[in-house]
Predict the structure.
Amino acid sequence: MEGSETSKGTTLRYAFGNVLSFFILVLIGVLAFSIRLFSVIKYESVIHEFDPYFNYRVTQFLTKNGIYDFWNWFDDRTWYPLGRVIGGTVYPGLTLTAGSIWWIVNSLNIPLSVETVCVFTAPIFSAFASWATYLLTKEVKGAGAGLTAAVLLAMVPSYISRSVAGSYDNEAVAIFALIFTFYLYIKTLNTGSLFYATLNAIAYFYMVCSWGGYTFIINLIPMHVLLCIVTGRFSSRLYIAYCPLVVLGTLLAALVPVVGFNAVMTSEHFASFLVFIIIHVVAVVHYIKGILSPKMFKVAVTFVISIGLVVGFAVLAVLVAMVASSPTKGWSGRSLSLLDPTYASKYIPIIASVSEHQPPTWPSYFMDINVLAFLVPAGIVACFSPLSDASSFAVLYIVTSVYFSGVMVRLMLVLAPAACIMSGIALSGAFDVFTRSIKFQLPGVAGNSQTDAGDSSSDSVVAQKDVVKTEKSEDAVKERPSKKNRKKEKEHVEKPSVKSQIKKRLLVLPLEASVIAILLLVLLGAFYVVHSVWAAAEAYSAPSIVLTSYSNDGLHVFDDFREAYAWLSHNTEVDDKVASWWDYGYQTTAMANRTVIVDNNTWNNTHIATVGTAMSSPEKAAWEIFDSLDVKYVLVVFGGLVGYPSDDINKFLWMVRIGGGVFPHIKEPDYLRDGQYRIDSEATPTMLNCLMYKLSYYRFVETDGKAFDRVRRTEIGKKYFKLTHFEEVFTTHHWMVRIYKLKPPKNRIRGKAKKSKSKASSTSSKKRSGSKNKNPWH
Amino acid sequence: MAKLLLFLTLIPLLPFLCTSFSPENPSSRRALVLLDDLALKSSHSDFFKSLQSRGFDLDFKLADDPKIALQRYGQYLYDGLILFCPTTERFGGSVDLAAILDFVDSGHDLIVVADTNASDLIREIATECGVDFDEDAAAMVVDHTSYAVSETEGDHTLIASDDFIKADVILGGKKIEAPVLFQGIGHSLNPANTLVLKVLSASPSAYSANPKTKLANPPSLTGSAISLVSILQARNNARILISGSLNMFSNRFFKSGVQKAGSSIKHEKSGNEQFLTELSKWVFHERGHLKAVNVRHNNAGEADEPAMYRISDDLEYSVEIYEWSGTSWEPYVADDVQVQFYMMSPYVLKNLSTDKKGHYFTAFKVPDVYGVFQFKVEYQRLGYTSLSLSKQIPVRPYRHNEYERFIPAAYPYYGAAFSMMAGFFIFTGVHLYNK
């Protein structure tokens, strides 16, 4: 073949590859968006769970009142009577994003409701996240790996669980921000461009706005920089990638009200400053090394090290003293429980009580990342051949995120992109090798093999081309750095491409093995797709405010939560206070628009402990606590009738623990019989007399005559009792939410004479309250 | 024409009809009197007349009249109920213990008069109100030292007591000179009960026993623990008078002279009339009934009530308090009305100053704490209806642009920042163009 023809052919193929990968990316976006719509199709377009309701409420406020009022919003409907400064305690990224989308859409005269925008924010950003994954992986291992990783990320179940339509939570946008920040970091690292460094700082700012998980970035990147320095990979590109990020990023982070001075005051951020110092020291050393003769340099090194040690120790001593003077050593509880997984369960029941803060079980790895768990090791191996700055970052990312996901099940979400990147690298590498072996052995039937492996092989073809292309473009870009480094870097960059060309020749597998391996890989991918779609459709799409169950007689829908909240909003005064366990706080304020005592933003432990204490106290003491907080209604969630396991009785021990942590007269052993938590006839009298038991099981015996609790699978201990200080005002259709009203104090105080003749009055009062109660069984 | 006439005659009646059920107007205008025996109507006419002269429309019924009813179509027909029927076991009609208690619990007033051999029903009503009559049905209050000197020597059950509660609002401003004659059963109060008050108590030498039999056991009720007449103000400000003697309301006791044993002064007329008239004024809210209106608060110097305060704002609070005099609302004058600025505990507690025309006001600074506060006035004084006002108001922190922009203490930092910027600029210039 002639040289000119080949070059013409390759440009054509490049163009074809680019167009193809563009359309593949579009399709990936569509896939990422549409796989998350199961919840809307199966249920309805509704906000899910707990936190999203708060975000939704905040977004409504933002769209109604504008950004400044949002910034200064003091919310008097939560945390009564303390109130909450929403503007200063919320990560505004998600809200501002959805608010801007709403504003843009509306100014284009597309009248979408705020709720619709909120519901679909997460799927939209999942598409963005898969594109960001493509970019990041492309920087690490080329376009083929990028496309594969993007496909994997588009439907990784772990990410789907947090980003289905309606799951309007911080993570929805934060994962995109996380990946995109990493991409820009790697891009800066590969190009050494200040432009990308600035973009990186802005992406980091968006991440800080969006999620508390930004500390992961500001710790992972310094770790990577340190790794590069230690392994002798220091370069001006590294300096440009890191230092602007720290300086600009910290300044920008301090602008977010919820972070503020934490950006420079808490230990989570110290690593970045330490590495900032180190990288400067290293840079100075490199500079000095360049201008001094080797002998002089040695002298200088000993001089600097001796002084540096003294200064370093002094700084370290000051730092240690400062950190030690704060009770938590400058670390927030959540971060401490990251470093020491047992920390939370030992000291902070309020963190330990949240199920998503528990360590995950092994099956949850299979559930959440499925076959990726097996592909990740291969991806790590692929990253080491050859190890570049970018691939070492990917390795570091996966290693740390595996650790963190092992601490907290919620951080599985951080692991998912890393696993997708690694698996993408592994898969595309494998396809690459196999298709090339086939192609190498059957030069005549290259087209055949292409149809054989379908679009994955064409992926890898594109990948191959793109690798070459990126390397080329990298070369072009690297013309810019200063003259001294240029030569070195050029060599550096050229090496892997030469190496890979050699490898291309060597790695030839037998034809049959390659074909079978490709088939197996496709099968593996198919498994993954089937599992992901199943997870999206069945496991993660339930909105949790509407529950369904299938039984012999068909589908049952439990819409009790909205029934209860609607009752509250229609039948109570606007300023009435509703007490419930904090899980239901956000929903009550958002759906019922009533003031709550505590909610899911657990910033004040004492206040939550007060509610926990009230719930675990006997009726009279509880009444007094609630009355002192001006509570009018108490809401409990009870699953005993329909078998809804996450009800208040199952959460009750946490109320006891959290309450007992602040008010020592509440003791956990009082509620346990021989260390066992039970509500049957063996239960302790303290348990049977506490408010939570009484409010949950009041009149429960009237349902089936035996009072059989379907969650605990036992008959309850105390079946017949009256409430003296509370009255039942509403119980939902399936008894899942029960609302009680505090009785006012008695109008008169009775004398102490014998009560024999007082029947007349008590029966009449019972009649009165009885007629008001709604009994769903009559 | 006849219709028009009827209409015209009804017009003057209209305000009367309107006021009778107005919740704003605490005067009771209709009262049901239940009697054991219609003869009581004449034998106790002085007491009834004093009520009628103050504008009461009394409806006399026998206690077992099958037609008596307290309410019709969910509306109460009466504002007050007077039970002069100590021996009735069952009321006629739809009235029973629960109906009477509901009557009280919906804010209406009640006078219960018991006597020796009081029925269980009457005792039960009293017990529900926190008053325990002597369990021995035949018991009377006997006092061998402060009995009233009378013709029939040796009857020490007729007691002349002058141990009144010291509260002008209950018994009126004029001192009751003559002792009050009492003959009947005594009762005791639970000391833990904060709602019920002893208005007339027995002397320390009194005891409660059956005077016709020999005293076998020490009497259960002795000394000044015995209450002869008690009042109760329920939490909803319904007022109840409980007395152990029907005779003390009678014309005979009203008119008879009294001389307390051991005292040389002989009063021409007993204190019963004055005591019971004043007490009935209190029971029927002609005295000691307060209302608070026009609760206002605003930023100092502004007129409108804000929806929210900012920390460290200066605010003004005012309220108007009036007392019902039986005919009109008069300004209430006191120097001990306090307002709390309250969030779980009072952050500010201030005495309100008054202009003696019922207007109470004060000004203070909002504490440097944000949250949902309440303006609380908790005014509970002996004999007065309790005033419990609370008004919720959120207090917000500073907005982002309400902080001081330039703090003198920060000037070194401003200087550092700007000199750094200038230095960097110069350095860049020198570095770039100095080759």
Q: What stands out?
A: Chain A touches chain B at residues 68, 71-72, 74, 76, 80-83, 85, 575, 595, 628-629, 744-753, 757-758, 760-761, 764-765 (CB under 8 Å). The first strand of chain A starts at residue 74 and ends at 75.
